[in-house]
Amino acid sequence: xxxxVKLALSPLLVAQALVTRRRMPRxxxxxxxxxxxxxxxxxxxxxxxxxxDSSAAGVGVxxxxxxxxxxxxxxxxxxxxxxxHWRLIARAGLTTAGTLHLLQREAATQADVAVIVSGVNDxxxxxxxxxxxxxxxxxxxxxxxxxxxxxxxxAPLPPIHHFPGLPQPLRWVAGADARRHNRALExxxxxxxxxxxxxxEMPLNPGVMASDGFHPGPAVYRYCAAAIAEHVATRVWPGLxxxxxx
Length: 246
What we know:
The chain is an alpha/beta fold and 246 residues long. The chain is 45% helix and 13% strand. The protein has eight helices and six strands, in the order αββααβαβααβαβα.
């Protein structure tokens, strides 16, 4: 989409964004533990960090058992034959830069693999794609250099152009922005061995979304957990160097 078209639509887009923000239900983050262990004792141990925004936190479902982190840990334990020690650090509304700031305030975030779910709020806050990539690079570097993370897997932005909770043309424009961010993420990820972008895109409709039409429902979280687990199990797990852990 051209900048000229976006600028021409900007008064309408701003008005739609303000109305949508005011009218959209504010769903809570789900209850439940944000750390745990999945898999059988005696198997190789994998330390997993899940971090990011509301979708990382599980907004759209009632408990963490239905959300991404628990589902992903369970799937990874099965796919890798590992005992997964997982921790979730996420908060609704965070940009990619905000995710890094949150992690820096937390203690004991060391992990072997980090899965980062962020980017929608970069689009919402109109963060340019090159700045979002710079934030992702800063996040990956900090995780590697200070938290012993060997690989960072970034989930792509979802197909915002399918979000039923957004009116047109806001949905169309936000979707185009999300696709641009994803292309920038993929180009950058190809330049590094310790970073990857997960390939997935589930068509979204009211039947699989949360009640606000903006956040994932249980079916979407199950799909995303399966896609990320397959990515880590096939592309990341074989190259990890794991220490002996209880």
